[in-house]
């Protein structure tokens, strides 16, 4: 073999081998953060006041139980008092001796109500050290079937439930931090990211936004829901930049489908073609998803997930958030793009084929 042939062979192997090796590195790194050391978690959250919205059921409740068991002072917030009361008893029972569990009944879709409720919480429990925004729900359906306005406006109610519950929580905490400092200075003090240093001392050290795989891609049946998750990711990405000078960490967790009461409700309106595209996949237990989120947070990851497909979608999107494996992710991006282009073609074919069959069935009746 002459030198030219050898170089050509090497280039061909490198062209295929380097992206594959890089992708394997990304996948391996993902699986290493799917759990956490309980001692590390306990050391990190011991005595911290942690607010979890959507904490009465499913993922939010399982997260609350793990943090309570690790020694945190956990406050769960939710709208439905019945579920909140039942969850509160469980969080109380899981809490360590000396830790305090609390509950807040509030409709987070309303900004004024949210601020009033959190103001009362801070007055009693003190500063919130971590906030985990886990409230939300999906109502799948074709956009052509979700055209109602008024009280039946699904698109608006989805934005209220998934986007504004998180946004109202964050901006209420910001407002309370600003209110906590008396304005006695003749000359206004310097501000960093919109806060004086005195005000910043009243802010959480961590803000965790719970999104979805549909923050990075979407398909038929999830038009209303994915729009809320895209919006939430944009909010979170910008928030991370804004709070970085204050050394406040923001994390964005995108779970896969979980075996929760909310998922059962979601399936009631899910179109058949949406089910077909999703395929048959095992649902993840919310406790396992909570472990993955906490593992990602403790590893210092901004984008976290418990689902490998979501992890790869995150890499392929190359958005403005920091990368966990910047070199490996950059080297694997071409291969991932090729894979997801093929996947998108398959989805398009499925959608067209499905409605052609539906049309033939309708005309044959």
From TrEMBL:
Gene Ontology terms: biological process: 3-keto-sphinganine metabolic process; sphingolipid biosynthetic process
Span of the signal peptide: none
Gene Ontology MF term list: 3-dehydrosphinganine reductase activity
TM spans (from-to): 6-33, 207-225, 331-355
Pfam families (UniProt xref): adh_short (PF00106)
Alphabetical list of InterPro entries matching this protein: NAD(P)-bd_dom_sf (IPR036291), SDR_fam (IPR002347)
Lineage top rank: taxon: Eukaryota
Keywords annotated in UniProt: Membrane, Transmembrane, Transmembrane helix
Record GO cellular component, one term: endoplasmic reticulum membrane
Name recorded for this polypeptide: NAD(P)-binding protein
Organism: Rhizoclosmatium globosum
């Amino acid at each position: 073999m002459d030198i030219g042939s050898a170089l050509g062979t090497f280039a061909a192997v490198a062209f295929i081998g380097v992206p594959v090796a890089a992708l394997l590195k990304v996948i391996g790194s993902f699986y290493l953060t799917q759990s956490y050391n309980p001692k590390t978690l306990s050391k990190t959250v011991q005595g911290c006041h942690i607010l979890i919205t959507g904490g009465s059921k499913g993922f939010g409740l399982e997260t609350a139980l793990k943090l309570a068991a690790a020694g945190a002072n956990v406050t769960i917030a939710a709208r439905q008092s019945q579920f909140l009361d039942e969850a509160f008893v469980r969080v109380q029972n899981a809490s360590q001796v000396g830790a305090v569990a609390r509950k807040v009944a509030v409709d987070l879709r309303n900004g004024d109500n949210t601020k009033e409720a959190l103001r009362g919480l801070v007055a009693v429990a003190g500063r919130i050290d971590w906030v985990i925004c886990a409230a939300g729900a999906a109502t799948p359906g074709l956009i052509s079937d979700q055209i109602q306005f008024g009280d039946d406006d699904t698109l608006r109610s989805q934005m209220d439930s998934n986007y504004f519950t998180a946004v109202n929580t964050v901006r209420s905490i910001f407002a309370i931090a600003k209110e906590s400092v008396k304005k006695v200075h003749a000359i206004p003090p310097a501000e960093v990211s919109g806060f004086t240093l005195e005000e910043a001392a009243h802010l959480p050290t961590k803000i965790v936004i719970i999104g979805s795989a549909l923050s990075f891609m979407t398909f038929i049946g999830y038009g209303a829901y994915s729009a809320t998750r895209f919006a939430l990711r944009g909010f979170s990405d910008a928030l991370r930049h804004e709070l970085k000078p204050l050394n406040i960490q923001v994390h964005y967790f995108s779970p896969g489908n979980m075996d929760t009461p909310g998922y059962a409700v979601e399936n009631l309106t899910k179109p058949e073609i949406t089910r077909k595209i999703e395929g048959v996949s095992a649902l993840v237990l919310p406790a396992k998803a909570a472990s993955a989120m906490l593992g990602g947070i403790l590893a210092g990851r901004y984008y976290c997930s418990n689902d490998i497909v979501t992890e790869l979608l995150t890499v392929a999107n190359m958005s403005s958030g920091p990368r966990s494996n910047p070199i490996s992710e950059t080297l694997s991006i071409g291969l991932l793009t090729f894979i997801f282009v093929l996947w998108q073609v398959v989805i398009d074919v499925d959608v067209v084929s499905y409605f052609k069959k539906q049309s033939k069935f309708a005309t044959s009746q």
